[in-house]
Amino acid sequence: MSPAHGALDPKRWQALFFIALAQLMVVLDGTIVNIALPSAQTDLGISDGNRQWVITAYALAFGGLLLFGGRVADLWGRRRAFVVGLIGFALASALGGAASNEAMLYLSRALQGVFGALLAPAALSLLTILFTDAKERAKAFGVFGAIAGAGAAIGLLLGGALTDYLDWRWTFYVNIPFAVIAAVGAMMYINEPENARNRSTLDIPGAVLASLGLVALVYGFARAEHEDWTESVTVTMFVAAAVLLAAFVIVESRVKSPLLPLRVVTDRNRGGAYAALGLAIVGMFGLFLFLTYYLQVVRGYSPVKTGVAFLPMVAGMIIGSTQIGARLVTRVPARMLMVPGFLVASLGMLLLTQLSIDTSYAAVIMPAQVLLGLGMGTAFMPAMSLATERVKPTDAGVAGAMVNVSQQVGGAIGIALLNTIAASATTAYVTDHAAGSTNERLLVLESMVHGYTTAIWWAFFIVLGSAVVSALLINSKGSGHGTDASGEGSDEGAPIPVMVH
Q: Which residues form a coiled coil (predicted)?
């Protein structure tokens, strides 16, 4: 028998382990595939122009189907959606590992995105309904948030090791044991409360408009990164996204059983949490990318050594999330953790604006990473908690999906915007200094570092923006405190989202 909603499930801590394992798999997958891409490109004869589709195919499917996947989990049952998502992700990964040509690889990545869009919201909503006690929830989500935040850096280490010592195909195959263990564990330990299922019908017009709108938006940013912001197809995608998403909002305000009940996003605290998280991801994704390039291209680190170099950030994330955020979130208002957390993270960004060709790792890069990890870990934990707090149990899946949407769109914006800024600054530096340079190799490296630091300055201000948004919009005390303005009941739990790529 499933426990009644509100009763504490005796197997909830075992369930947390398997849910966290599944999320770790999804987060790892992003960084691992990025590391493996050069090897896969050479092996399968993929052109430089088509290489981006290995990343974009996943992003389009995942980002486009998240809201649909979240609502399917609400209607179909979260445990069922979670297990189907895991099995599908494993099969798609097997296809990717066995890929004999680029079309197979693109297909596997798109299928990973489809099943990831079902798996991620299901996992988040399972956490919402399994952990209803505020203090327990804080501990559980602290652990979960640490995994979500640190997973990308762990993926860098694991991806480097697999690519260096085995073969790029193992960066796909490694997902299979994760998925099998998590699926078996889910069947044994996850019990979904009977009354948490949403019995309404699926909003097909809303699903179509949301999916097409999000695909157009994500593709617009992905194209802008490789083409130009004013290129005709890019502009068309942005216009189409605006029209489709505006139509989606109108439909949702009028249908009886909306895909995304507008009350989920119009609540001041939840809306503020989505905005703050989205902005932080814009800054973090860009920074992560540039620091990886800096260490590998400028400093000559191997993929494995680069992964090890990111471990201070991982440690900071874990400490910030489990020891600071989780311990304080039930005692102080969420805003009092989010604002200082984002400010500390922005200090780490500020340190990294000082990068040069021979910057000391121990004196600058490592302390910056610790500040970034501590700050983001501390801020993400309460922000993610607020993002679906006190939402109706029947809306838990789609509320969790909204957090993933804010992160997915934030990631797409971050990579496109900051890459464009870095490329422009690099080109301008070469133009200004080419005449006086006698060492071409040195000029190339200096121009790259100048591009990275210019983009990191932007990332610094964007993360400061997260702190400002948190200070101005968020007025809830966070987990276990206060009542919801929308009257949706109090204290329904709070999932932590996965970091998507």
A: none
